[in-house]
Design brief:
70% of the residues lie in helices and 1% in strands. The protein is globular, with a radius of gyration of 23 Å.
Length: 526
């Protein structure tokens, strides 16, 4: 019930700690994309730090302005404090744009400028696709069980946001452990740190000092300058023209932007599970338009509502933490401070913050779904393990080639696939699961949750949708294609047929009510 005396404070003391966590998340993304563009795709610093990074900053400002307004409106409507949705560059989609759009253009033409132009063209067109998610997003949210939406996010959190940064900690244990123990102390254990210093800030300071002391970080002002964001209309048009001249690139960007608007939907659901309600359609339009604005100003990389709202909610954040990001990230981008921070802060010092975000998301999911639906959450996570394996197997083959090993077969070669199977590595199955992993996880989580609830027709609808998507290669396919009645799509059709037919013969007495064993000291009422 709304209290007429209530006034929502945009900034609270708790925002300071949350700011350092979200700032670190955005900073790592910017550091990674800058490094790949500069050293893998040979883009000059003028493009990386003069166009891409300032463009990303403009997109972040645009999106955060909307999310602050949404938080203020939600707080005034409910009469209580709310946490604004975190926002920034989508980590999984960033990698797809790097190696699925920009990379192929660079490797085919050896022209880094053209690769950047096609990148911003793809970003702009992809933003349109992401915004169109607002048409179907609210309906999808109504029919999709929460366990399916949150479960597939937990899969991303487990492998990409949690496991990869944790591996980074163990690669550089002197720095990583120093930072990790502070995150466990202040954010996971929730103990008050000396002088109330935010755990994220202290972790960065300590990790950086350790790195400086052992020579794994340096203070360098190379790259510091003034890089004001400006629109690149001509380059954007050139990139879009190249896209339409080579339409096969749409087979990459359309599915990944479908993923992006579903990721936004899932993150809004995650916020709702934590107690804060936001309009999913408005958020999807915001993410799409923010991506388009970023592309106009030079950034190819899509923006989105971030995973991790429950973590910031747990910290007690309001909207100040994203306002802080909207101030600091643009300042760092415009004055070239990102290059300075890139040299100063080692990844291992920042990685534990991402581990905490992953832990919080999975923990909050376990608390926000009914216990019976944890089976649905678990199966929704599994396709992302397959996606992780495929990425790492690809990296392994690339590393072998780079180290001079000759005559390597490509991943997918029949002889190699058969040899892997003999060793217990089910390449073909993991490949199918990895293609469209977020959709596959959401679908299987929804099917399992619906079956648990006895909603067989709802489960059948998701199986039927999966059959349709697999026919066209949206899931379980390397690219979009004309309908192909493959074994996977036929399997989905069989499952859908069973799920639609079974309710005709189903009665409530068919369910076996299993009595779980009681814990020591527990009574049946508990």
């Amino acid at each position: 019930m709304r209290d007429g005396s209530y006034t929502y404070k945009l900034v609270s003391r708790s925002d300071f700690s949350a700011f350092w966590a979200l700032f670190t998340d955005n900073l790592i993304n910017l550091m990674v994309l800058a490094g790949v563009c500069q050293f893998v795709f040979q883009m000059p610093a003028e493009i990386v730090f003069g166009r891409i990074v300032p463009g990303a900053a403009v997109a972040i400002i645009a999106g955060i302005a909307v999310y602050v307004a949404l938080a203020k409106r939600a707080a005034e409507k409910t009469g209580r404090d709310v946490t604004a949705l975190p926002y920034g560059i989508s980590t999984p989609v960033m990698f797809v744009y790097l190696f699925g759009v920009i990379g192929p253009i660079y490797w085919a033409t050896n022209d880094p400028v053209l690769a950047w132009q096609v990148g911003i063209g793809a970003g702009f067109m992809g933003g349109i696709v992401a915004a169109m998610g607002a048409i179907v997003g609210p309906w999808l949210k109504r029919v999709t069980p929460r366990a399916g939406m949150l479960g597939t996010l937990c899969g991303i959190a487990l492998v990409f946001i949690g496991t990869v940064p944790l591996a980074t900690v163990f690669e550089n244990p002197f720095v990583g452990f120093a930072s990790m123990i502070i995150i466990l102390w202040g954010l996971v254990g929730r103990f008050r740190l000396p002088f109330n210093i935010p755990a994220g800030l202290l972790a960065l300071i300590v990790g950086t000092l350790v790195a400086l002391s052992i020579g794994e970080a340096k203070i360098s002002f190379a790259g510091v300058g003034f890089y004001p964001p400006v629109p690149y209309v001509g380059d954007l048009i050139a990139g879009i023209q190249h896209l339409f001249a080579n339409p096969e690139l749409f087979l990459v960007l359309v599915p990944v932007q479908i993923y992006n608007f579903i990721e936004t939907m899932n993150n809004v659901e995650s916020a709702e599970a934590a107690g804060d309600h936001y309009p999913v359609a408005t958020c999807q339009v915001t993410d799409g338009v923010g991506t388009m604005i970023g592309a106009l100003f030079g950034s190819p990389f899509p923006t989105t509502a971030y995973i991790g709202h429950p973590a910031y909610k747990r910290m007690g954040a309001h909207a100040g933490y994203i306002i802080g990001v909207a101030v600091v990230i643009p300042l760092a981008a415009i004055f070239g401070l990102l290059a300075f921070l890139n040299d100063l802060i080692p990844v291992a010092a920042a990685a534990p913050v991402l581990v905490f975000v992953a832990l919080s998301l999975i923990t909050n999911t376990a608390q926000s779904v009914k216990p019976a639906h944890m089976a649905a959450v678990t199966i929704a996570m599994m396709p992302h393990v397959s996606a992780f394996l495929m990425v790492k197997w690809g990296s392994l083959m690339g590393a072998l080639g780079a180290s001079g090993v000759e005559g390597l077969p490509r991943l997918g070669d029949e002889a190699l696939t058969a040899a892997l199977l003999q060793q217990g590595a089910h390449f073909q199955g993991h490949l199918a699961l990895s293609q469209g992993a977020i959709l596959t996880g959401l679908i299987w989580g929804a099917i399992v949750a619906s079956v648990i609830d006895g909603r067989f027709r709802n489960a059948g609808g998701f199986a039927l949708a999966a059959a349709g998507m697999s026919l066209f290669g949206v899931i379980h396919g390397a690219s979009l294609h004309w309908p192909d009645f493959n074994p996977v799509s036929m399997g989905y059709l069989i499952a859908a047929g069973f799920l639609f037919i079974y309710p005709r013969f189903h009665t409530a007495e068919d369910r076996i009510e299993e009595e779980l064993p009681l814990a020591p000291g527990q009574t049946p009422a508990e």
